[in-house]
Amino acid sequence: MGSDDGAKGRDGRSWWSAVAFLFFFVGPMLGLEQYLAAQRRLRVARALAVAPAADARPPAAPAAPPPPPPAARSPLPPPPLSPAARPPPPPRTPAAPPPLPRARAPPADEPEGVADAVAADSLAAPPSLVDELVALAALPPREALAYLDADPLDVERVSNATAWTCPDRRLLSSSPRRNPSRAAAANLKAAKPGAFVWFDHLSKAGGTSFCEFARRNLGIKRTPSYYCMPPDPKVPGPDGRVGRWPGPQLKGYIERTKHAVVANEWDAFPAPVLERDFRDAAVLMTIIRDPLDRLVSTHKFWGILNNPAKVKPELVPWLKRKNAAARARPMRRDTTNDFLSQVGRDNFATWKFASYAEPRFDDCKGDKACARDALATALAVLEKFHVVVPTTWQAWAGPLYAGFGWTRLEEVHVVNIGKVQSSSSKKDLAPSDYAALREANVLDEVLWHWARRAFLERLRCPPEL
């Protein structure tokens, strides 16, 4: 009997302990979790300078009945309840997602025909995937990178791009204003006079190999001899810096030489010129690389292989000097300053596709609104490209090139100095340097995610009518 009574007493105390734990610990913790979730949502909304829309919030859950007051302490524990009579634990309420930004209206001074498409078709539309990506520019870099690391675009685990399934929610717009010119693609495929490929070459992102690839498909006589860069008698050297040419000069060159491809490596992409003068003549192509891998490769090529100094510069200090020089001496169309400083700058790809007509994008100086506009402009410009290929997925890009009548689709890898090298920023950088460089290049990290998703959609998704 004594043994049975002791067991019952222990059961009673155990049940009372469970009830007390639920009431005094679990309940307050759930309330604290809901409070912190609300604070996080409010912080994101303030960072985006957008008040969350009332109609975008989930319906409020019915108020839970107030908990019963705690029972007075008793020297004896209450009798244990049967399992059927035990109250269920409080339900866990999931935190609502942070509010998304509204589509922004284009500033009055954005490039004609390019950045005006950022919001013109979607001012009243719900936020898109692009809106979500652009909003990251307003967040602290570490928070933006944490969002990207969660793989919201489903690009990190792709092992075979040809087997990727097109999702219901698209990244790319269906608006003709924001899409590549179908007429330009048809004209190039038909080899019509005046049709040509504009290849925007990000230094150390496979541009040399692309030129050889284009030459195999278009023919030697239809490609400039120096890495597909056309010459200009007024510019010293074999590279005439086509990115600075006005429209009539480029048109005259194409008509005179019958060349079907030109490459622009050092200068910003002249989006207004191509949109205004070559909308239905130029097929736009580029290759995008992981931003930190590209920076490491840039240092190996320009800081070491092509550096005559006996003592070679270390990676991180060299990149910092190049970035500082790029911001101190921005490239403008009427200057001939140090082009190498640009290829080592932070957020190089964003600068290349956004800064042609916007001098403020040369250096946003920490201004979040400027960074957001630069990223939005770069993505709007790239959305008009016919081909955007990630360096890591070039083996799957054949169907995109085949659409222009190209038949020699085997991948080409060419280096002009030394042997083929694989630059891995994770291996070449200390963890602290890797983390710091990712934060400094957060805009290009967003662009890198966008480029991979855009490639998959161009490859696997049928056109939206």
From TrEMBL:
<feature type="compositionally biased region" description="Pro residues">
    <location>
        <begin position="59"/>
        <end position="101"/>
    </location>
</feature>
<feature type="region of interest" description="Disordered">
    <location>
        <begin position="53"/>
        <end position="113"/>
    </location>
</feature>
<keyword id="KW-0812">Transmembrane</keyword>
<keyword id="KW-0472">Membrane</keyword>
<protein>
    <recommendedName>
        <fullName>Sulfotransferase domain-containing protein</fullName>
    </recommendedName>
</protein>
<feature type="transmembrane region" description="Helical">
    <location>
        <begin position="15"/>
        <end position="36"/>
    </location>
</feature>
<keyword id="KW-1133">Transmembrane helix</keyword>
<dbReference type="InterPro" id="IPR027417">
    <property type="entry name" value="P-loop_NTPase"/>
</dbReference>
